[in-house]
Amino acid sequence: MSLIKADLAEILKKQYFFKFKANIDVFSSLVGLQLLAVLFSLGGGMYTGYYGGGMDISMKLYSADMVILFTMIWALITSVTITTKPYRNYEFTFVTNRISSSLSNILFLLTISLLAGFTSMLSANLIHVLVYFFIDSGMLIYEQHMQDIITGVISTSLYIFLFCSFGYLFGAFIQVHKVFSGLIPVGIIGLLLFDGMKLNSTIAMFYFNEPSLFMFFIKTIILAGIAFAVAILILRNMEVKR
Amino acid sequence: MTSLYLLVIIGAIAILSIFLISKKIKTTYAILITYSSILLISTILVGFISIEPENIQIESEAVSQQLNNALKNGDRENIDPLYVMKEESFQIDEEKVLTLKSNYEDGLTFYIERKAEDDGQVDSTIYHIGPIVNGHYVENSLEPYELHYSENMLDYYVNRVARLIFHMNTSEFTINQFKHDDVFAINEIHTQAPAVYLQIPKSLSIDRDGDFFIEYVK
Question: Signal peptide location in the record (chain A) (predicted)?
Answer without folding.
Answer: none
